[in-house]
């Protein structure tokens, strides 16, 4: 297991060669795909070396293909150079070398050595890599056009002329089988990588859509889709559900006095305090809007909800965020409205929320910096 873990770690390290902290998600994905393509190309070329070793051991010198060995060696060196260029941050050069080296190698092999193998299938895969790495632009269309012309040249040559350096029938058969296996492995690995990265991108996009960019808490959108789910789950399990609505006292006055940047900093700090009290996986804290936050606590009784609100109030006071224009306190405080019930068929989630919201207004009317449940 340690060996496999070590190998996996080394491969991951190679795939991330040249990665920088400031990369966007797409830049990271393109770089990783470039390194992965270089590694699988290395794997494919290394099989050419193994074939030559097999020929040296089992075939006569006349049947051995030194030329194919040299071609495979060139391809191996080029893929290692791709990793080196990425490590030195020459990303565009690395992409073009990654496209150019296999194209030239496959074309040379198809004309010089092999007449009927699976190597020319590379030509059909090349446009995918070209458009993926270079995008939809003039350069990529030139690359694809050149690849198509090389394909036509190769097919024409193979149909009308014999190989310049013919190999034995046995070597040709081995090459054919190994080439098809390589293509299968390469397509499997690269497709798996693309699907995995697309899933990661979807997950990150979902998180961005459901997360408040300022505080890092779930936003109103997430609240709208998730609150009902939590309510119905509590109803099915016959467990208490508590809703806590937090409102920062006199926050508009704070913004007017200290400025919106200080207001943003204060909201971030309050959000950190609120979020650290969310312990269970099924409990969530949301930024409901402006200076209002909502906590939905599963399997939490009213007494426990009140205790939690008291701890949060204490933590906010201990933070001592100066608020000179507050008529409640010289530091930032919050008011809390709480409602808690075991959901049942005759009650809707909206009723429970409205109860907590009314309690919040009572807390404000009673002088703020207090909890009403």
Descriptors:
373 residues, alpha+beta, 66% helix, elongated
Description:
The chain has two domains: 2-206, no CATH class; 220-372, Reverse transcriptase/Diguanylate cyclase domain (Alpha-Beta Plaits), CATH 3.30.70. The chain is built from twelve helices and five strands. The chain has helices spanning 2-15, 25-58, 66-87, 91-112, 122-134, 138-160, 169-210, 220-237, 251-258, 260-276, 302-319, 349-365; strands spanning 241-248, 284-289, 292-298, 334-341, 371-372. The mean pLDDT is 86.
SSE diagram, text form:
Elements lengths: L1 H14 L9 H34 L7 H22 L3 H22 L9 H13 L3 H23 L8 H42 L9 H18 L3 E8 L2 H8 L1 H17 L7 E6 L2 E7 L3 H18 L14 E8 L7 H17 L5 E2 L1
Parallel strand pairs: 4-5
Antiparallel strand pairs: 1-3, 1-4, 2-3
Helix pairs in contact: 2-3, 2-4, 2-7, 3-4, 4-5, 4-6, 5-6, 9-10
């Amino acid at each position: 297991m340690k060996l496999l873990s070590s190998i996996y770690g080394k491969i991951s390290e190679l795939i991330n060669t040249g990665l920088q902290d400031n990369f966007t998600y797409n830049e990271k994905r393109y770089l990783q795909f470039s390194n992965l393509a270089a590694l699988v190309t290395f794997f494919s070329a290394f099989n050419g070396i193994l074939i030559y070793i097999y020929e040296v051991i089992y075939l006569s010198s006349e049947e051995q293909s030194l030329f194919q060995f040299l071609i495979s060696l060139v391809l191996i060196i080029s893929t290692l150079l791709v990793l080196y260029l990425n490590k030195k941050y020459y990303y565009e050069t690395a992409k073009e070398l990654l496209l150019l080296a296999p194209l030239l190698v496959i074309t040379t092999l198809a004309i010089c050595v092999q007449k009927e193998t699976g190597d020319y299938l590379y030509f059909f895969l090349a446009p995918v890599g070209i458009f993926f790495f270079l995008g939809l632009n003039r350069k990529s269309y030139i690359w694809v056009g050149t690849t198509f012309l090389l394909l036509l040249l190769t097919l024409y040559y193979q149909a009308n002329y014999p190989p310049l350096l013919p190999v034995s029938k046995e070597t040709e058969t081995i090459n054919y089988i190994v080439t098809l296996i390589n293509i299968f492995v390469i397509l499997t690995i690269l497709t798996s990588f693309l699907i995995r990265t697309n899933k990661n991108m979807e997950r990150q996009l979902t998180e961005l859509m459901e997360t408040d960019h300022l505080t890092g808490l779930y936003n109103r959108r997430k609240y709208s889709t998730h609150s009902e789910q939590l309510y119905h789950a509590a109803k099915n399990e016959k467990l208490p559900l508590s809703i806590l609505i937090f409102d920062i006292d006199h926050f508009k006055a704070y913004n007017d006095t200290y400025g919106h940047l200080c207001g943003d900093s204060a909201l971030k700090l309050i959000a950190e305090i609120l979020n650290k009290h969310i312990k269970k996986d099924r409990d969530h804290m949301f930024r409901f809007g402006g200076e209002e936050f909502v906590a939905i606590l599963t399997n939490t009784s009213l007494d426990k909800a009140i205790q939690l609100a008291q701890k949060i109030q204490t933590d906010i006071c201990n933070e001592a965020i100066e608020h000179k224009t507050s008529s409640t306190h010289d530091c930032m405080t919050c008011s809390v409205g709480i409602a808690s019930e075991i959901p049942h068929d005759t009650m809707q989630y909206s009723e429970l929320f409205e109860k907590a919201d009314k309690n919040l207004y009572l807390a404000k009317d009673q002088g703020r910096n207090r909890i009403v449940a």
